[in-house]
Amino acid sequence: MIDLRLNIDGVADFVSHDEVKIFQNETAFHFDNILKKTGKGKDALGWVDIPGNINNDFLKQILEEADRITANSDVIVVAGIGGSYLGARAVIEALNNHFPIQQEKHKHPKIVFAGHNLSEDYHYQLLKWLDDKSYSVIVISKSGTTTETAIAFRFLKEHLENKYGKKDAKNRIIAITDANKGALRKLAEAEGYATYTIPDNVGGRYSVFTPVGLLPIAAAGYDIKQLINGACNMKNYLLKTNDIFKNPAFLYATTRNILHNKGKVIEIMAHYLPNLYYFTEWWKQLFGESEGKDNKGIFPAAVNFTSDLHSMGQYIQEGKRLMFETVLFAGKNKKELKIPKDNDDFDGLNYIAGKNLGQVNSMAEKGTTIAHIEGGVPVIKLSLSGLDEKNIGELLYFFMMSCALSGYIINVNPFDQPGVEAYKANMFGLLGKPGYEEKMKELQKRTKKTPK
Ligand code: PA5
Questions:
Q1: Domain boundary at 171, 199, 222, which?
Q2: How many CB atoms lie within 10 A of CB 353?
Q3: Would residue 289 show up in a list of annotated catalytic residues for this protein?
Q4: Residues 58 and 85 in one domain
Q5: Is 340 exposed, middle or buried (CB count within 10 Å of its CB: 0-12, 13-18, 19+)?
Q6: Which domain, by its residues, includes 253?
Q7: Is 424 in the active site?
Q8: Are residues 323 and 174 part of one domain?
Q9: CB-based pocket (< 6 A), ligand 1
Q10: Choice among 37, 42, 181, 424 that is catalytic
Q11: Do the beta carbons of residue 17 and residue 254 sit within 8 Å?
Q12: pLDDT tens per residue across span 342-395
């Protein structure tokens, strides 16, 4: 059995049973193509089998590497962007304590991130903060040429070398990159860093079960074995049936596309736990980068409830009817917190005294879901009993498979991202990168107005 529950009762007013059933054969066909690696982007389907193929030697190697770098580090800086950082961050933040006081008791290092933006202040402050910390760096880039990551790593490398000397610094750097190609591979080999490989047939946003996700997650102290078990569990469950109403990936991929065909062009992932913020960032990247091409695709957005019920909630309830909502709800909290009774009851909260805060959150979700459905927003519900490594592993695999199916339903290649090159070429032209001279001239001649 799996822990994840998918419930589409909240779309019943918008999508009929028969409309879903029409997709039965098509979805089964796409699933078969994914499993046999015969569909679009077939060279990038390595992720399908990865969780089941991870052997004990590989796992041992990752765990030993995590132990080695954590032994002498209070902080691990993970430098990467997009698929080379969001999977690890999604899992770590889903499992993390929120406050440093608890974090300090955690015997594992603090994981911080770099290279996912070009903010001068962010990187300046990070380096300053690292001045008096013992730390190591995991630098991740499949292409090995991503500018944001490369710049951050240049700063970090210099900082580490100044702090520890070149020889010791090299033992505090691990590079995760392509087996042969790219500047990072070259640099890592020239400097003698420990390296791990991102398989050729796995793209960034599908790489969380490779060293890209596993090493930072293990270094943060979380159980990667359970994470992998969760993914295997989900895969085996999905393999059990091609019945569209029983296979949750089939049902989710289909339902969202039927809603899209009815004008629901935005999917809002709503969650009710701050721990899930980065999980929805990972999900947004997965679906946005996989489906948003050829003028197609649902726009993936996310809201953090209940905070955003006091802001975006207004639009969702009464704004333009463009969206459907997918609620990601994790039931059980790790610790209980009962609402205290107060003799004066000035705030009028005694009617919930004695209830757990989690119960209140759960009623907030139920109340919101009913209101949104009645307001014309179909709701797909995904529930987990709680947040742990195994459940998160299930969920990651579920979304990757659903995304691949959904991409095939709309007939795009869910594993490429040709559109992200456009900004890079312009930025390189503007920065004067060798080889981009023509681009620079073209941009200088550009007559269309650009905001100053
Ligand atoms: O999903 C993807 O392929 C992208 O988001 C990449 O992961 C991202 O652009 C980073 O690329 P790289 O790992 O080559 O630095």
A1: 222
A2: 12
A3: yes
A4: yes
A5: exposed
A6: 5-39+227-409
A7: yes
A8: no
A9: 81-84, 141-143, 146, 149, 203-205, 289, 417
A10: 424
A11: no
A12: 999 999 999 999 999 999 999 999 999 999 999 999 999 999 999 999 999 999
